[in-house]
Write a structure and sequence with these properties.
By secondary structure, this protein is an alpha/beta fold. It has helices spanning about 65-75, 125-130, 135-145, 155-160, 205-220, 220-225, 270-280, 310-315, 325-335, 335-350, 360-365, 410-420, 425-435, and strands at about 25, 55-60, 80-85, 90-95, 100, 105, 115-120, 150, 190-195, 195-200, 245, 255-260, 285-290, 295, 305, 310, 320-325, 350-355, 395-400, 400-405. The strands form three sheets. Strands 1-9-10-8-7-2-3-6 form an eight-stranded mixed β-sheet, with helices on both faces. Strands 11-19-20-18-17-12-13-16 form an eight-stranded mixed β-sheet, sandwiched between helices.
Length: about 450
Amino acid sequence: MAALNLRHLTPLSPYLYSLAKRPRNLSYLRSLPISCSRTRRFSLSIMASAAKKVLVPVANGTEPLEAVVMIDVLRRAGADVTVASVEKQLRVDALHGVKLVADALISDCHDTAFDLISLPGGMPGAAALRDSKTLKSLVEKQSEEGRPYAAICAAPAVALGSWGLLKELKATCYPPFMDQLSSKVAVESRVQQDGKVVTSRGPGTAFEYAVVLVELLYGKEKADEVSKPLVLLSNHGDEYTFTEINAVKWMFNDSPKVLVPIANGTEEMEAVIIIDVLRRAKAEVVVASVEDKLEILASRNVKLVADVLLDEVISHSYDLVVLPGGLGGAESFAKSAKLVNLLKKRRESNKLYGAICASPAVVLESHGLLKGKKATAFPTLCHKLSDPSEIENRVVIDGNLITSRGPGTAMEFSLAIAEKFFGRDKALEVAKTMLFVQH
């Protein structure tokens, strides 16, 4: 048996410091408090009882992982999040072929006062946000009235910086855009908070960024509460790890073809992270709806649009079939006779299949697809697994099966898949590009 030790399931929250003090460099690279010399102060008097209004603008070319993670995490905290398209239509074609449907057009939000406006990155998405006169007006008003605003990846430099909204504030962004920030502003940290302005580096820092936004709005107790069920890493180092048992080589012809089913109630973070990471690695990913239409409503009300209906592609050949979690989505998968039959045939012929979060327990275990296999699942569902010996591990590979725990382990899960197909070097290249691990 080949095995790599995993980091344990330590919540991120102990590594988030009180936001009621001076601006700080929230770098998670060392998991140690970091002192700051700035004297700006702000007071957190916002109580967790009220639903805060949050605006997340999106555009064609938005980085979907960043957008979906912040929407999901903020809605978990109880925020009233409006996803607004700066395009002429609600549907946006995000990066990596991910299709999102916004709740409103940005023009519908012009007269609304928000407790927070948070911009995802991605190019040309960040440029489209920058060029939206309505969004610019909203964020400028946010700044004038002393209300929080935030941005991640390209957006701090491309949008906030170009609008003059980072003057005298410490900020960070995706490394290639750092030179667009003045030397007095730029800080190389995973998450940077200065007063009521928060910035962050990229897709691999999106979880940390989102939890900091929760603390900004609702306080540390709520941030701790939200971070625990996400099963987040406590810090990020030079590597990611997984546990492998009964190692076999994952084979494919040309480019690996991966089927990712989605359904109403699918966990949107998990689905989007799997799709995003594997497409970055150059796998051919087919997103198939098990519903009777392409658009699905995910577990935190994010609207995703599949590439095809499952019925249209069920007979095609795939190198891997991988199920995102989310209890509602997993229950739909378990009720899909065609999908379950496909998975059973794959097990019988030793073909690759996998699942994360609720799906290992709700789908695979309930249909006998974990018999004789080591697996893990979302912590509160692990009691359903017949073999609990590996449940504490974040990602478990047993031969032709891969399983994982939840939204906070989805990056490692996806990178492990990339590694099994393309090798460690390629997977680390993707992880570093996304800033999930250190350069």
